[in-house]
Amino acid sequence: xxxxxxxxTIRRDLVxxxxxxxxxxxxILTPRLxxxxxxxxxxxxxxxxxxxxxxxxxxxxxxxxxxxTSLIVRLGMTGQLRWWRDRESCQGxxxxxxxxxxxxxxxxxxxxxxxxxxxxxxxxxxVEAALRVGPEPLEDAFSVGxxxxxxxxxxxxxxxxxxxxxxxxxxxxxxxxxxxxxKIRPTRRAASLSEEELRALRGAIRFVLAAAIRQxxxxxxDFRDPCGEPGGFAPRHRVYQxxxxxxxxxxxxIRRILVAQxxxxxxxxxxx
DNA sequence: AGTACGCCCTGGCCGC
DNA sequence: TGCGGCCAGGGCGTAC
Length: 272
Hints:
CATH class of the largest domain: Alpha Beta
Radius of gyration: 19 Å
Strand order of the largest sheet: 1-6-7-5
Number of domains: 2
Number of helices: 7
Helix content: 25-40%
Number of strands: 10
CATH architecture of the largest domain: Alpha-Beta Barrel
């Protein structure tokens, strides 16, 4: 499931391929992809002839800046952006829902088995308002004070970390991994965290995300980079999908519970 | 305000 | 071997 590190890995790989190039032809095959705004035809029409000025990331969203408008792509659970050097090498299958053909060759495809992802156009000046996500955890503005404000909530800390309006880009993997490294139980009420715990949690979120980006993301189910290669961070997971195995710190069996209806993994000894 | 639950969607896995 | 049933899960809408 692509979260911030996976989206950032794809973004960095795609920047040298697509930025500065123009879209010659666009085809979108699956109406569900554009359900948020427009139709496959209207989105495709809005892409043709546009040059990509920049490829940015906001939380788990890609923003292809086309000038007046921006193409927003969200991968959902199983979305993949793949890059093909030329039309001849481009491979689609029944799960490939969109093709962007570039001037001077090169094809960007969108593949998504479960079709939870989406693809839509927004005026560039309205992107921030349209996405409605919280601060970027890797930016300086994500201070302990900012996290303290985010945590002024009676909800469980795991739920708060997953709320994209509060913090951008964390999903189930990195929420669990950050809470483990901060030694905080996912069921704790966010507002109960001490100043020391908030400091530890901020540091753990940033550490885990940065480490995952260095390893090019976690390939738990479907994540692949634009060349089809998996990321290398999954073996570094301490708790996510490690239930039943001994904690790397204390040896206690990692447990799996439900928090806010999500599978949640933690060490009952290390995390309090 | 916080939480539960259903929905979307499909491949993979389990039990019979 | 085959098939029905269940599960995962990000985000959203609805109900309590």
